[in-house]
Amino acid sequence: MVSDLFPMTARQAQTTRRGKVLVGPVDLRLDGGGVAMVIGPNGAGKTTLLHLLHGTARLTSGTIEWACPLEAARNQQSFVFQRPVMLRRTVLENIAYPLRIRGHQRADAYEQARDWADRVGLGAMIDRSALVLSGGEQQKLAIARALITRPRLVFLDEPCASLDGAATREIEQVLQDTREAGTALVMSTHDMGQARRLADRVVFLLHGRVHEEAAANTFFEAPVTTQAAAFLRGDIVE
Amino acid sequence: MGDLWSGLLQAFWLVITFDPELVEIAGRSLRITLTALVIASLIALPLAALLAVRRFRWRRTVIALMNALMGLPPVVVGLVVYVLLSRSGPFGVMGLLFTPTAMIIAQVIIIVPLIASIAHQSLRELWTEYHDLLISINVTQGQKIRTLLWDARRALLTATLAGFGRAIGEVGAIMIVGGNIDHATRVLTTAIALETGRGDFALALGLGFVLIALAVTVNLAIHWLGRTEREGRW
Amino acid sequence: MKQLMTLLLGALVAISLSGKAQAADVMRMAVTTSFHNSGLADILLPQIAEDLDLDVQLLVVGTGQALRLGRAGDVDAILVHSRAAEEAFVAEGFGTHRREIMYNDFVFVGPDTDPAGLREASSAADALARIAAAEPAFVSRGDDSGTHKKELSLWAEAGQDAASFGRWYNAVGAGMGAALNTAAGLNAYVLSDRASWLNFGNKADLALVFAGDPVLFNQYAYLPVNPAKHAHVKHDLALKLEGWLTSDTAKGLINGYTIGGETLFVFNATPEG
Fold it and tell me: Residue C18 and residue C14: Cα distance in Å, rounded?
């Protein structure tokens, strides 16, 4: 059952709002494992693409198919937002929340949450209000909360966008550990250094479409399209 | 000015001597209003949460209606409840007119829109904040509502207290449906109206001060409960 | 602080739970504000509870509303003072019968300076004629109560039409107490029952300026609501109460009730009337 999620196949997937195409049509395949990095200039539709694949943006045409029924697929995924959503609860209650929603007993959920808090380095502040944490701590909390249900796939939308170097390093370490544990990551980033450090595959998005998709090494060393090459040079791409 | 002083003095004596009639009337005020408050909250809070999270066709209309009903004139509510509960009215056989139950019904009708409206404001705000996460976790409608109600509990307490304030100080409706019967349906506000009618301003003012003190005490007590909880957990 | 708040909460809970023991039987009677303001009820009700083990719950309203309550079957009996309306009530079958219990009287209250000269009036009609001529501020109940109806009939007897009066005539549409409060505020003339006036606490510059004309006598009558119209009314209790109200015990209490040394009511029930 657990291995049922992949492959995911998106065919001509598209989302529109008020007649305007936000993303798509997109053809994309995820086979599980590794880090798929979505990059591209501002407004290319990175965030929307992640939401579309996750199922929280409306698919207006095309198909997105998982190896299992959609409801089961949703339960094997989680999402980390660029600006983390903090429940007005303690750190521990925040991390335990998805388990409580899935019907775990309080003691069991808190036990696991404590474990995850330790893993992301929040073990000392589990009884603090989540609202008083720093940006980096909040993002680590969000990642722990996303991982506690042991998903097979995690979407991360620019998780380090507003964090300093130290926090970014800690979070990348957590993500590396997660990847090595066999969880697939689909993340977006602005930070080309981060993309080089973490990516196994790169999806270069432009104007809502997949402009180029390749293994990370290939992409960074020999981009095929002129726009991708320009983007990597740091030019403004329109 | 003299009336104010003797009113204060009278209130002081009534409280100090634990005047049995005052205790009875104040107790009835509290009992009726707190009962109405519990019932109204059980209706208004889930309704407010539902209106915050659920999109349905008449949602905007219901919200607009709810906000409008906040200003419902109590006297009209009283009159309508009176007509409904009168022996000659549709619910007459239940024999509820001029009982505390009738007063509770009237108060519930008056404060449900108020509590729901204030609660809806803060729940909607919280929902915008939580929306992405809860949708992503794929929670059910019931879990959504429970999460919002629990996490907004302090704001909801404020909404409830507003309802309490309106209910305990209300006189028009409960005078009509309760009848201000001594030892049965007389509460602080109707007693004040009665004493004013008798021209005994000092006693009326005294009762008024007791009413204010009671409302303030309940507010403080509930706020204090909310704060200890916060200190304990946060 | 914590102990104090706990104590406070405890006291609140205790207060809100304290109930009061009720007598075995309970019935409801609508009475007029003027009767209730007299304070006589506070003398009679405890004695009734003791003698009959009957808890009489009073709904204090104007005569008009009292009659409506009876018509709707929301009370078991009414005690009012507006003869024509009472007789209509019985004739329409809403009450079984009408039993006279006692009377008191109406008085004219007005500014102590008495600008309209009511103290020299020879009769109630003369008093009203003086008011209509001088047009001082006058407060009318204006609430369809027994007192209001009495006032209107007095104007009619004096050959005046209250509907045609100018701004000096203030129909307040409120109970006796509220009307007296308004009169005190405006320093105006007002027709009041003697009991309400004597018991009124906010006399300000007002004084009793005319009384004594027999036309001002105010007959109270007791009317049990007809069980044929409303099967749920407690007719047996209403009859039990009637028996007590016309008894010698009641006679003693009613005739003996005074405020500031003044007798207010005269018992005039006839045995088995």
Answer: 6
Kindly report the CATH number assigned to the domain that includes residue B9: 1.10.3720.10
For chain B, the domain total comes to 1
Q: What is the pLDDT of residues B12-51, one digit of tens each?
A: 888 788 888 888 999 999 999 999 999 999 999 999 999 9
Do C12 and B182 count as a contact with CB atoms less than 8 A apart?
no
Interface B–C counts its CB contacts (< 8 A) at 93
**B72 alpha-carbon distance from chain centroid:** 13
* B129 close contact with A: CB closer than 8 A: yes
Domain with C204 in it = 106-216
Residue A62 — left, alpha, or beta (φ > 0 → left; ψ -120 to 50 → alpha)? Answer: left
Residues of chain B with Cβ-Cβ distance to A158 below 8 Å are none
Does the pLDDT of residue B234 top 50, yes or no?
no
What is the rounded average pLDDT for all residues in chain C?
87
For residue B231, pLDDT beyond 80: no
Q: Is A179 inside a domain boundary?
A: yes
Q: How far apart are CA C17 and CA B122, in angstroms?
A: 33
Q: What is the pLDDT of residues C89-130, one digit of tens each?
A: 999 999 999 999 999 899 999 999 999 999 999 999 999 999
Decide if B138 touches A, using CB distance below 8 A: yes
Lowest-pLDDT choice from A30-34, C6-10, C86-90:
C6-10
Is the four-CA dihedral A73, A75, A77, A83 of positive or negative sign? Answer: positive
Kindly provide the ipTM of the predicted complex, given to two decimals: 0.89
- pLDDT score of A1 more than 60: no
Together in a domain, C75 and C157: no
Chains A vs C: touching, with 3+ CB pairs under 8 Å?
no
Tell me the Ramachandran region of residue C114: left when phi exceeds 0, alpha when psi lies from -120 to 50, beta otherwise. left
Q: Whole-angstrom distance between the N-terminal and C-terminal Cα of chain B?
A: 48
The DSSP 8-state label assigned to residue C174 in this structure reads S
In chain B, residues with a C-beta closer than 8 Å to the C-beta of C58 are 181-182
The number of folded domains in chain C is: 2
Alpha carbons C27 and C49: distance in angstroms, whole number: 11
Task: Considering only the beta carbons, identify the residue of C17, C177, C230 that sits closest to B197.
Answer: C177
Task: Indicate whether C67 belongs to any domain.
Answer: yes
Chain B positions with Cβ closer than 8 Å to C: 23-24, 26-27, 30-31, 34, 86-89, 92-93, 95, 97-98, 179-184, 194, 196-202, 217-218, 220-221, 224, 228
Contact B151 A79 (CB under 8 A): no
Q: Which of B95, B180, B199 sits opposite C181 (nearest CB)?
A: B199
